[in-house]
Amino acid sequence: xxxxxxxxxxxxxxxxxxxxxxxxxxxxxxxxxxxxxxxxxxxxxxxxxxxxxxxxxxxxxxxxxxxxxxxxxxxxxxxxxxxxxxxxxxxxxxxxxxxxxxxxxxxxxxxxxxxxxxxxxxxxxxxxxxxxxxxxxxxxxxxxxxxxxxxxxxxxxxxxxxxxxxxxxxxxxxxxxxxxxxxxxxxxxxxxxxxxxxxxxxxxxxxxxxxxxxxxxxxxxxxxxxxxxxxxxxxxxxxxxxxxxxxxxxxxxxxxxxxxxxxxxxxxxxxxxxxxxxxxxxxxxxxxxxxxxxxxxxxxxxxxxxxxxxxxxxxxxxxxxxxxxxxxxxxxxxxxxxxxxxxxxxxxxxxxxxxxxxxxxxxxxxxxxxxxxxxxxxxxxxxxxxxxxxxxxxxxxxxxxxxxxxxxxxxxxxxxxxxxxxxxxxxxxxxxxxxxxxxxxxxxxxxxxxxxxxxxxxxxxxxxxxxxxxxxxxxxxxxxxxxxxxxxxxxxxxxxxxxxxxxxxxxxxxxxxxxxxxxxxxxxxxxxxxxxxxxxxxxxxxxxxxxxxxxxxxxxxxxxxxxxxxxxxxxxxxxxxxxxxxxxxxxxxxxxxxxxxxxxxxxxxxxxxxxxxxxxxxxxxxxxxxxxxxxxxxxxxxxxxxxxxxxxxxxxxxxxxxxxxxxxxxxxxxxxxxxxxxxxxxxxxxxxxxxxxxxxxxxxxxxxxxxxxxxxxxxxxxxxxxxxxxxxxxxxxxxxxxxxxxxxxxxxxxxxxxxxxxxxxxxxxxxxxxxxxxxxxxxxxxxxxxxxxxxxxxxxxxxxxxxxxxxxxxxxxxxxxxxxxxxxxxxxxxxxxxxxxxxxxxxxxxxxxxxxxxxxxxxxxxxxxxxxxxxxxxxxxxxxxxxxxxxxxxxxxxxxxxxxxxxxxxxxxxxxxxxxxxxxxxxxxxxxxxxxxxxxxxxxxxxxxxxxxxxxxxxxxxxxxxxxxxxxxxxxxxxxxxxxxxxxxxxxxxxxxxxxxxxxxxxxxxxxxxxxxxxxxxxxxxxxxxxxxxxxxxxxxxxxxxxxxxxxxxxxxxxxxxxxxxxxxxxxxxxxxxxxxxxxxxxxxxxxxxxxxxxxxxxxxxxxxxxxxxxxxxxxxxxxxxxxxxxxxxxxxxxxxxxxxxxxxxxxxxxxxxxxxxxxxxxxxxxxxxxxxxxxxxxxxxxxxxxxxxxxxxxxxxxxxxxxxxxxxxxxxxxxxxxxxxxxxxxxxxxxxxxxxxxxxxxxxxxxxxxxxxxxxxxxxxxxxxxxxxxxxxxxxxxxxxxxxxxxxxxxxxxxxxxxxxxxxxxxxxxxxxxxxxxxxxxxxxxxxxx
Length: 1331
Fold this sequence. Notes:
By secondary structure, this protein is mainly beta. Helix content is 13%, strand content 38%. α6 (221-233) packs antiparallel against α7, α6 packs parallel to α11 and α16 (664-673) runs antiparallel to α17 (677-693). The longest helix is centred in the first third of the chain and has 18 residues, at 30-47. Residues 1240-1328 form the CTCK domain.
């Protein structure tokens, strides 16, 4: 069984996984095998415990969904019951591509949040249609499960890439396989989206400019650097290959490594380690991508012209800016963007936008940074994905070349044609020929035809074999001739290109006159190899253990009785069974163009060619021509003819073979030449070998009839098939074997035989080592230099070198490597300790030592008479605690207390404590004016008050700041800088005022009141603006119009000029209409004169609209007020009404609030039928028209989307079916039609008249006849050795006479008889001879 390494990975809390099982239900599978597959699937679903939804599909010519998305846990019983009710549908074809296409169509209609589909395609017959890989947007992964050998893996590799299809030899292995693939496994490897192209035949290695955008997030930057480091280490870096640059982004973008830097791996890794960008809490993905695109298109940054630009962007959270515009810029610039979402906080829509609408497979989603690192470390899949990225709308072939839509090309094997479709999808068409469905030819000598691999499939050909058999040594040449060896000689069987195969014969031990094969020798084929009759093998003269691989030759043994020598470079395979005196030499069909010489002759040349190149017809001369050496002459047989044909050939044991190979020739030869018991054994053994090649194995040997001797540890088996293990080969399967001939295959594992073979074999549970049988463990043990045995895969550390770790590998090989230092991690040190490395001979070791710079904490304060004690002496961080030491109590000196405290003695459990307790009160002192109050609080919370002189002078209880002056009666005083030594306050100095007896101004007079130190000027009259004096109470006109008058006034002994307006009489003001305003003129008069004046406005519907302003009358009408300048200024209102365009076909107008024209809403799609008729299909509805399904939908932008799905039917000629008498029927419930041929049956025809001589019937005659179709065939005839045709016709099985009255021209009547059919059936007849 060959399986892929894929497993379903499902994390806790993850949603359901959609499992889809697609089962082949064609006629070639049959009802019995289909039911077995269904029952095995029921067993799988019964054992599943995970959250899965199950879908089951059956397909052949058509596709039927039997069960759709049923959840296991909630509907298990109902699901199992429905599965058991699934019935085999049958069908002549295996339309695998149609089944996959239907799954893809259904997947595109699933909601975006639906789980991914895992599809298991269970099939056992080759597809009869074209297969196309599902698009990656469908989120569907297909695992082809191939049962048997009929389907070639290469035909389905495109479906499962990057994994290989799964091949099962037995249908029963399906249960364990599906349970293994569907069981969650943790941890798991990251899963990359499938590549958009076919499996690469060569690695992609084109130059690229790769730019990494790393998210500067807390705690993740180091992991992202590890990811880039792994990429650099696994990539060919250089100016002519791949270049790498790195930018770190968050709120802003920082370029850490440029393409212009030296592009060498060592330099890039050094620059990468120096990146220490501080983390950022916000991510601006749009700005980061835009910066990367600008870097890519600028040659100043080191980007190369014509080299693809690739951006790998790590996305861990949502972006705070838009990414759409940046993604469009990348698409326009031709930059391929690969966004990698890590974790669960990023936005999936943003990831899809960054990847681009045409390249959704570029988006990668991973669960953690561990998966990210694994993706760059494991293999070259990620690099290959970047390398094969092309611009949207093009395809990329396996060599990295871009292909345009519509372009086709062939794969390197020449058997597959690829087509580039629009959108970048690639489809493959296979030209391979599957010979399994072809009938093998019949070969001469009852030899079974062999399957020959060809460039595009395979074909059947008769093998080119030379066979030597029985004690008489009949040699069957490549062209099927029988020759009898005559003496004890060495014969040259084949000479080819300097190589020669020689058969050495010798007298038999028991019968000295009988010929026995002693050995077969291959000379000049890369080594001189001799296969001896004692089962020993010598190579260049020295005995060598088996298996042997030297000089391009491979020598193995099967069953301890059969030698097998394979020379691939010569195209020869030799089998030699000394005990039975048998050998076969088989030539590779592909290498038969090179002619050979020798007794075996040359393939395809029916002539006896002597060693000198001449041709003869004498078999004896021919044999003597190829004698290499003569051992001794052989006496003629003196056969007593006492032996009769042994009953073994005609007994019941060989009855199954008689129908395939007639025993008569062997019986005749036995009766003629078997003069000794050994002859009989060899002849029966030869007949048994021919039967085995025809597929019939007979266990004919008995203890009394030709027993075969075996080594003591082995057991004889007559019909052993399968694989035989020996030391040097392990358990294996025939899947990876090389065909050796006679049904025997060999690979790196055991020798295997698909054809039953007889021989000596080891008992079950043991393997062969030379001529003995041992356990598997005994032949895989390794022995070290000290003589100690170690089982396979055991690891140990040598005593003399503990730094090495040795492992016992295959072929008893010991592999020792330097011990990995897994425990070299530094320890976690205690406080005040630092790590220091110790010197060691193997791995680095670390220890913790004291840190001299460590700051120790303060010791605790002890109470209750306790003393301080160190509890961890010698450690780096001291730990103190308080303990009681009564012997030291008397040594303690009582404390001295300050004035505000008094001593107090307290009895404790340890020493009596004397302490100073508080003994004070708060002060209530008040400071005099000019002093500062200073309050202090002691440690007993008592407040003490003190008074200090301030920087002021104090006069009669009033404080004055230094430098201030003030009047005190007729004196002027000031606060000086000098202090009074007794009080500490500043000194006050005063002096008498000096009076100014100036002359008073005009309009004022001098006045001095009682008690004043000096007099002052007091205003007594007013000074007008014209310079005249006005007395108090005097009034005068203040302006030219007489509208304002002035008056000299006295208020509170102050004289000043007051101004008053002239009072106007009450007036009637007019009421102005809308669009005018009241304007009053006061220029020419003291009192106003008012009138209504027109404004620069428009009036509409009692609303004023200013000049230049616009107003909306309704949603469809807009007006503007404008002023027309002319002799008379005039305001005018101009209006414009919006005209709405009608909606296109299929859309209806829907009113929209605050909108004039509303919006066009999708209502129906228009579908054009093949006859030209147009039909309307409502939105969100579908219509089925034969095999065409029209669906009318509305996308998220409100646009109509008409989807037309056409069901593809098998090719069908309707008219030909009707012309041949067939009837048209449907295939199942599908829209496809098929032709039902009429079966052989009775039918009734009407004859208008019949004529016998001149007489004619007068009435119509109903006559029954046979019509319908029967199946003819061609069968191989064993007697005639040819394929004979057998014609089967619709024939009558019985008739009855029908009397018909006839009228003659002379008026007389007569009768005649016709035969009418009474029964019909298909009967075989001899076919007409071909001319």
